[in-house]
Design brief:
heterodimer; A: mainly alpha; 0% strand; B: alpha+beta; 6 helices; 31% helix; elongated
Chain lengths: 223, 236
């Protein structure tokens, strides 16, 4: 009997057995799991998807717990496991499944989805970490596209206030990438040899930004 | 108001305070002078506002970064990403951490128990049963009992039927702004996954259950918006 003719429940049993072997680092046959994933992702079979979740959720959870930044999130591991599985489904379903020929390749991609779920979560939290509650609510209300447009307009406005390329670079490192002076020196020592040089340049930039009426109003709105 | 310990702090001293690098004299001044403390507060407010709006606004999403690393994006997008990576330390850090994570195949005891917290996450919309249909009710010509849930313009119609194969929970998402075709519905009871279903072109889904325990349902649209229905009672 070929993999494709097996009933989904039988296929899932065989896949679960092989996954147990895989997790014990024992020799295992990847064909059953690959076929189960194909049915879940290409055929959109609810039964196959349910089995995929049941079989792989424990593995995904273990990956979440091993991620070096998971502890920084303050979230429970199951949240990221669900998120990673959903992102994986939407990224690999349909014709995109043909990008993968082997089970280890597709599982490695699932592991990548764990990484992106945690990193994106932390990225989204970062700017609000030490901010006022009303700012958090304002950002939460904006759609990603609205936030992006607002950000792009604001950045273009800032660039008009600080036309010098070095100032623009420093503003980017400070306000967009949230880098501290020591970090900036490490990455750009040819421009700023020491932290004091960064501080002096930053002070000049800040004075120009604070002198701008539009930016002052924007800051006042956050009060 | 004026500085009570003139001269007032200079722009450079305020800038150092913003960076957390002010000396003890400046810190002492700020602790005692409302005028200079107010100037620092105004500067900090502007700084925070700028960082909130601008933080990594032009960085590709993390999922796109991993797709790039996996060689799964088109050549033009890959070239744009390469250019971005040349100047973005944060995205470079993300890719370096990805490599470490992928290379780590150390042992991890998998936990079979999935514990879910009830907090609301970004992108999640928590639906509530509509007041007039909070209890399951017979409606029109339908065989089963129905209940409607709502959140921000989306309505989730649920129907419960007793069939030979078990308790059948069917549903449909109706939303004028978001397409729910191809969305992913996950149903759990007592934190245990009962089923996953892909919504059809009508936004419909169904699950067959063996127990009438309360259930939670999450439905995620292809765009990432997630509807959450907590504590659905299945006793009609």
């Amino acid at each position: 009997m070929t993999d494709s003719s097996l009933h989904t429940d039988k296929l899932a049993d065989l896949c679960a057995d092989e996954t147990t072997r895989f997790m014990r680092h024992e020799a295992n046959d990847p064909h059953y799991c690959f076929e189960l994933l194909r049915r879940a992702l290409v055929d959109s079979s609810g039964d196959a998807l349910t089995h995929v979740y049941r079989i792989y959720e424990p593995l995904v959870l273990s990956w979440v717990r091993r991620h070096e930044r998971f502890q920084h999130t303050g979230e429970d591991a199951s949240y990221f496991a669900s998120l990673a599985l959903r992102n994986f489904y939407f990224a690999v379903r349909g014709a995109k499944f043909s990008n993968f020929q082997f089970l280890p390749q597709i599982l490695r991609y699932l592991k990548r989805c764990v990484h992106s779920a945690i990193e994106q979560y932390l990225r989204d939290q970062q700017p609000t970490a030490d901010s006022f509650i009303e700012n958090i609510e304002q950002i939460g209300d904006a759609t990603p596209l609205e936030s992006e447009l607002e950000a792009e307009d604001l950045w273009m406005h800032i660039l008009t206030l600080i036309p010098e390329p070095e100032d623009q670079l420093l503003a980017r490192l400070t306000f967009i990438l949230d880098m501290k002076p020591a970090e900036i020196v490490r990455g750009h020592s040819s421009i700023w040899a020491h932290e004091r040089a960064v501080s002096v340049a930053l002070q000049r930039i800040r004075r120009r930004l604070r002198g701008d009426e539009f930016l002052r109003q924007a800051a006042d709105e956050s009060r | 108001m004026e500085c009570i310990f003139p001269p007032a702090l200079t722009e450079q001293e305020l800038s150092a305070a913003l960076d957390g690098e002010a000396g003890s004299a400046v810190q002492q001044h700020l602790a005692q002078c409302p005028y200079c403390a107010g100037r620092l507060e105004a500067a900090r407010r502007l700084e925070q506002r700028l960082k909130i709006i601008l933080y990594r606004f032009d960085c590709p999403p993390s999922q796109q970064l991993v797709d790039y690393d996996a060689g799964l994006i088109d050549p033009a997008s890959a070239e744009r990403l390469r250019q971005h990576l040349a100047t973005c330390a944060r995205c470079g850090d993300e890719l370096r951490r990805l490599q470490v994570f992928l290379d780590d195949d150390g042992e991890a005891a998998p936990s079979l128990r999935v514990v879910r917290s009830q907090r609301q996450r970004p992108g999640e919309l928590v639906a509530q049963p509509r007041a007039d249909t909070a209890a399951w009710a017979a409606r029109g010509l339908q065989d089963g009992q129905t209940q409607d849930w709502e959140v921000e313009g989306a309505t989730i119609f649920l129907e419960l039927n007793h069939r030979a194969e078990g308790l059948v929970l069917s549903g449909q998402v109706v939303d004028e702004t978001t397409s729910w075709t191809g969305a992913l519905a996950e149903l759990r009871q007592s934190e245990t996954l009962q089923g996953v279903s892909v919504l059809d072109e009508m936004g419909e889904f169904h699950f067959v259950l063996t127990e009438a325990e309360p259930a939670s349902l999450t439905i995620t649209a292809p765009g990432g918006t997630t509807l959450v229905l907590e504590s659905i009672t299945l006793n009609d």
